[in-house]
Write a structure and sequence with these properties.
Helix content: 10-25%
Strand order of the largest sheet: 2-1-3
Low-confidence stretches: none
Structural class: alpha+beta
Number of helices: 2
Number of strands: 6
Bound molecules: zinc ion
Number of domains: 2
Strand content: 25-35%
Shape: elongated
């Protein structure tokens, strides 16, 4: 069940935090008003990493720098190294 982060559009109740988090099922619609003060709110990206940075994390360059070795299947039982240390190719045959 993901945690969604909301902020008040403009006005907020005096006891409301600027931002608040709500646990919601994926099937639940976004909140449009604050459950406390009833002012309009909108969802913002919280702890979810944008897809782009996730892809960067798994880039060959980053993997090599982090000390990992990455092999990509290049044929039948045959793997080619794309990042890190180790033999350039490994073959299962
Ligand atoms: Zn509020």
């Amino acid at each position: 069940m993901p945690l969604y982060k909301y902020v008040h559009d403009k006005e907020k109740g005096k006891d409301c935090p600027e931002e608040f988090e709500v646990l919601q099922y994926l099937s639940e619609p976004d909140l449009t008003v604050c459950p406390d003060c009833g002012q309009p709110v909108h969802r913002i990206l919280g702890n979810f990493a944008p897809v782009k940075s996730e892809r960067d994390m798994l880039s060959d360059k980053n993997i090599g720098e982090k000390g990992f070795t990455k092999y990509v299947k290049a044929g039948n039982g045959y793997y080619e190294k794309t990042a890190g240390d180790g033999p350039q190719v490994i073959s299962g045959n």
